[in-house]
Amino acid sequence: ALPGRNTCWYGGSNTLTLTTSDGRTGEIPVALAGFKELTIRIQQETARRLWPMTVDRFRSGEPVTFGPFTAQHDELRHGSRAIPWNEIDRVIVLSISLIVRRKAGLFKPWQKVAISEIPNPHLFLRLVKSMTDNPETLRPATKPEGGLADSEQP
C-alpha cells in the first residue's frame, strides 16, 4: 500500500471497507441508499489522489506494493513468484477473486487471490493494464548527460 494514504475496496461482500493512513477502518453497508454511486466516487477520489504518487514511485524504480503483489519495472511479484509484464495475458476480477493469467498458462492461473487482500485494487488494475498494454507510458524519466529528462522536454 502507499504509505500515508487511505485505501478502499468493495470486494463483493456486504460492505465497503475504508482504511485510513493510520490503520483505522470503517465499513459502509451495501444496503446504504446510493451505495453504488458512493463506491464509484470513493474510487475516483482515491485514484485522483493516489495515482500520481503511484506513477512517480514506479517511474523512480521503487517497487510498488499492493497487498501480496509487488510491481517492479520488469515484473510483477507475488511472494517468491514473479512474472514478466510481457507474459501476463490478462487480469480478471471474478466475484471476490482477482486472477492473473499467463499468456502460455494453459488453464491454471499464475495467481489467484481474494480481492479484499489488495489495497486500492482499482489502482493495481490500472498499473497492470498500463504495463501490459503500453509499458512506455510508465517508463522512467531518463536524463541524458547534460540534457533534460524526457518529461522535461518542451
Provide a descriptive summary of the structure in words:
The protein contains two helices and ten strands; from the N terminus they run βββαβββββββα. The chain is α+β, with helices and mostly antiparallel strands and 154 residues long. It is globular. The two termini are 34 Å apart. Strands 4-5-6-7 form a four-stranded antiparallel β-sheet. The protein has a three-stranded antiparallel β-sheet with strand order 1-2-3, covered by helices on one side. β6 (75-78) and β7 (81-84) form a beta hairpin. Helix content is 25%, strand content 29%. The chain has helices spanning 35-59, 121-133, and strands at residues 7-9, 15-19, 25-29, 64-66, 69-71, 75-78, 81-84, 88-94, 97-102, 111-114.
Structure described in brief:
The protein is α+β, with helices and mostly antiparallel strands and 154 residues long. Helices cover 25% and strands 29% of the residues.
Topology diagram in text:
Elements: E1 7-9, E2 15-19, E3 25-29, H1 35-59, E4 64-66, E5 69-71, E6 75-78, E7 81-84, E8 88-94, E9 97-102, E10 111-114, H2 121-133
Antiparallel strand pairs: 1-2, 2-3, 4-5, 5-6, 6-7, 8-9, 9-10
Sheet of most strands: 4 strands, antiparallel
Discrete helix count: 2
Give the overall shape: globular
pLDDT averaged residue by residue:
82
Q: What's the helical proportion of residues?
A: 10-25%
Structural class: alpha+beta
Residues in β-strands, percent:
25-35%
What does the radius of gyration come to? 17 Å
Order of helices and strands: EEEHEEEEEEEH
Cα separation of the termini: 34 Å
